[in-house]
Amino acid sequence: MRGNNAMNYTIPPKKLLILNILDILRKYSDENHRLSAKDIGERLEREYTQKVDRKAIKRNLVNLLDCGYELEYSESTRVNKRGEEETIMSDWYLVRELTDSELRLLIDGLLFSKTLSYNRCKELIRKLEGLSNNYFSSKVRHIRNMSENPPQNKQVLYTIDILDEAISAGKQVVFEYTEYGIDKKARPRKSKSGAENEEYIVSPYQMAATNGRYYLICNRTGYPRVSNYRVDRITNIRLTDDAVTPLKTLGYQNGLDLPRHMAEHVYMFAGDSVEVVFHANRGLVGDIMDWFGRDVDLGAVDENTICVSVTANENAMLYWALQYGLGVEVMSPQSLRTRLADAARVMSEKYGGESRT
């Protein structure tokens, strides 16, 4: 009896044949790697110790089609030994829900993510690779160039789940928000007294991805505007029973326009947006559209200079204008020009002489 049981585990029962054929199609077939019944039979014998005739393989392939699996194949006719015409079905492959190009885009998104840890990214990439075949896995081995400096927050996926639940239910959340010290370690922000961790009670409206990071767009209780928080810096989050503050009470009569919000908050700073007019070199048109979208207002000043009008957060525009300082001049508002002039003066003083080190 013990020997018979061992034999049952060694040789798969015939009822597993259809599953083994499906597994072979998943691992070894695509539009460029098509399998004949002979190919499938050889792999069944080599990998599953199942020796099956071609008619049984064809019958199970047809059963997979009847079950709704999207299989492609080619048909041809031939005359058998009895002089009868018969249809030959060959060149089988499994059509996948995601193409290899689509999987590469998803994997690239993980590679450029600054939210997930290195090991978590590798784990998710392996799962994505499993949606294709063995040939695809070999294509992506050379692109695993993720940073070895993983984010410190291991709660980030849980945080995203809670925020998604809160947004769907229209409920507020409470969390702590981390910051880094000179020792490069993350720690919760302290309250003004410094005796305890500060708690943030917010009404979450939307999560958005930009520059490789997730941000929560929300309203903090007691503040009159929408704020943005890095999701990977949120810890110890919990859902409450309190309803969110309606966006209409914050001046968003038609709800949150996410593309507009992202264009106005290029660095995801909180605060009100203002109308900003600046002159820029013509060569920066592509960069300007990348940052502010295709709806940005452009006009000609001369053959080398354009005039740009955008609605954006003033704090964000300060850093953006400093980044493109050699090719950009802010014309208005005057408050921003003054801040840029002050920043330029400070920088001039820092770099005007010899280094102090």
Task: Describe the fold and architecture.
The chain is α+β, with helices and mostly antiparallel strands. The chain contains twelve helices and twelve strands. Strands 3, 4, 5, 6, 7 and 8 form a six-stranded antiparallel beta sheet that branches. Helix 2 packs across helix 3 (37-48). The longest helix is centred in the last third of the chain and has 18 residues, at 334-351.
Distance between the termini: 84 Å
Sketch the topology as an H/E string, one letter per element: HHHHEEHHHHEEEEEEHEHEEHEH
Give the oligomer, counting copies of the same chain as homo and different chains as hetero: single chain
In total, the number of strands is 12
Number of helices: 12
> What gyration radius follows from the Cα positions, in whole Å?
30 Å
The helix/strand class is alpha+beta
Averaged pLDDT, please? 85
- Whole-number total of structural domains: 4
